[in-house]
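re the bet — no i am not wrong, look at it urself. input seq straight from the record:
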Amino acid sequence: CLCGHNPTLALARVDPINRSPNDDIKKITDTYIRQTKQQTSKANKTNTKMKVELSIHALKLKNVAGAFKGTSDPFAVITLMGSSPGEKPRVLGKTEVIKNNLSPQWVTSFSVDYEMGTPCKVAINIFDEVRKGDNKSMGSALFEIGEVLGRRGNTMAKKMKKGGTLFVVVRKAEGSGILRLTMKGIKLKNVEGMFSKSDPFYELSRKVDLAGSLTWDNVMRSEVVQNNLNPEWDPASIELSRLCGGNLDAPVLVSIFDYERKGEPVAMGSFETSVNGLLAATKSGDAFQLTKKGKPTGGIVVSSAEVTGQKQAGGVTQQMAAMSVSAPAPAPSQPHRPSASPSRGGYDFVDYVSGGLELNVVVAIDFTGSNGDPRQPGTLHHLDPSARNDYQKAIAAIVGVLSQYDSDQQYPVLGFGAKYGGVVRHCFQCGPAQEVKGVQGVLDAYRQVFSSGLIMSGPTVFTEVIQTAAARASSSLEQAKSIGSQSYTILLIMTDGAVSDPNETARCLEAVSDSPLSVVIVGVGNADFSSMQFLDDFGQQPGHRDIANFVQFNMHSHNSTQLTKATLQEIPEQVVSYFQKHSIPPGSPLKRSDSTISIDDTEEEEIDLTLDIGEDEIVVTGGGDGFVDGFNSSR
C-alpha cells in the first residue's frame, strides 16, 4: 500500500467522540459569494483556453452512389455539440468534396477552442455529394477533443455503423493570419498520354516533426483545371497556423498532380519554398521550377500572394511588412522548436500532451466522523443504490475528464480520517488493490471501504496524502524519463470540512511545490470552508509554484461541466509551469499511422443530428440535444 496500511474487511462505524460541529452547519449564507470571488480571481490570472486544429480522414467507406453510378464523392460536416444542458450545437463547416474515393484524405481543417474540464465534443457527419437530389449519408461519429488529445499521436479512430473507419487528428494551432495565394502553371510536362492533356491541381504541404523524424503533411488542395498544361488556378486562402505554424520561413512543399477519374493522382513535379518565398516571387516575377526525379517538368508563377491578419511587433501587419520584399527568400529553415527555457508564449499544454505526457491521478477521500453515519440516509457517505452521493458524483465527473490523458487508467485510491485498530489513519488504501482501473474501479474501491472495519473519526489532515502523492509523482516522472517519456500527477482530495491545521497544510504544500504535482481539493457538504482561503493565496507567494485549487461542490452540484471546469481549468498552466521551471521541453510529437492507431471495435451509433446543407450555409434543424451529465459517468 502507498500509505503503509491496507485494512481488512469488517463493518464501518462512526466514532462519536470525534464528530465535528460541521454536521450541524446546514446553511452558511456567505459561502457562495466567498467561493465565487476566490475562483474568479484565480481564473482571471490566465487565459485557460487553448486553440487547436482538427483534421479528419476516413478508410474504406461504404459506397452509397448506387448501382451503375460509380463511386461516392464524400465530404464531411463538422458540428460542435453543446457543452451544457440546453446549449445548441454549432456547425464549424464542411470539408472539400473528394471525387470517386472511399478512403478520402480531406485537407480542410477546423479551429476549436478547448478548455480542460469543459466538454468539447464534435459530431462528424459524412455525406456522398449528389448533384441532383439530397446528399446521401455515409456515416457519422462523435469525438471528445480532450480524449483525442490524450491518444497517441493526438489521433483517434472509430468504426461507423454504416461502414468504414473515421480518423480524427488534433494538433496545436500556432500563429495567426491568412495567406491569400493565386498561382498558374507554365508549360507543364504532360503525363496523360499522347491524345489528351493532364488535368492539373496543386497541393501545399508543411514539414512536421513526428517522433524526431521530419515528414510532409498535406494541408491544402486546389481545384482541378481540366485538360490544360498552362493552368490558372482560382485564388486560394489558407490559415498560417495550418500552413506554417505562423513561421513564414518554415518549409512549404508545392506539389502538382494530374487528376485521374479512377486511381491515384499522378505526380507532375514539385518544389520547396516558404511563405516568404511565395511573397517574394510575387514581387520578382520569377517562376519556380518544377522537378520530378531531378528533371525539370515546367514552371509555376505566383500571380499574387499576401498575408493578412498576422500581427507583428508594434502592431504592424505582415501584409504591410511583405511589401518591402524584392527578392526570393533564402532557403527555408527547419521547423521551429522553441528553446529549452521558453519565454511566455512558448510551449503550452498541447505541446507536452502531443509529446507523450501522461497525467496520473491519485484519489483521496475524507472518512472523518463529520460526514455522518453512512448507514443513515441524508449523510454524505450514504450509499443509495438508486442515486449517487456527492462524493461519487465528484469522482465520476473529475476522474472521468482526467482519464482522457492517462493511457493505462490505473489509479491509487486513498482514505484519511478513520480509525483502524483504535489508531487514527491519515492515509490508508481503499479497496483490496493498490491501483484500480478507470472511474468504475475508483467508485468500487470507495464502496468497499465501508466493509473494511474502519471507524470514521478525525481530525481532518491532508498532509500525509499530499506527501504520499508527491513521492509517487516524483517516482512516476523518473520512471517515465527512463523510457523517454514524461508524467505529471494530479491529487484529487475530497473532504467535508476545512483542514484542522491550515498552517501545517500550507507548509506541506510549500515543501512539495517543486514536485510534478497539482492538488485539487473539492469541498463536499454544507460546512463553512472559509478557512480554506489559504489554498488560493498559496500560489501568490514569491517563489511558490501554484499547485493547489479549492472548489466547493455545492456551488456546481447542478452541473458537472461547471464542476470540472472550476476544478481543472488551472491544471494545464500548472503542468507547463513545472516543466518550464525545470527547463524540460516537451517530447517530440509521437508518430502516428493508421496501422498503429487503436480502433474501438464497437460500431459508433448514428448521431441524433439533422442538418440542412445549402450552397452557402449549413443549419442544424433537429437533434443535437444528447448532453450527458458527467456525474453519471463510469468510464
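see?? The first helix runs from residue 31 to 43. told u. also The chain has 13 helices and 31 strands. so pay up
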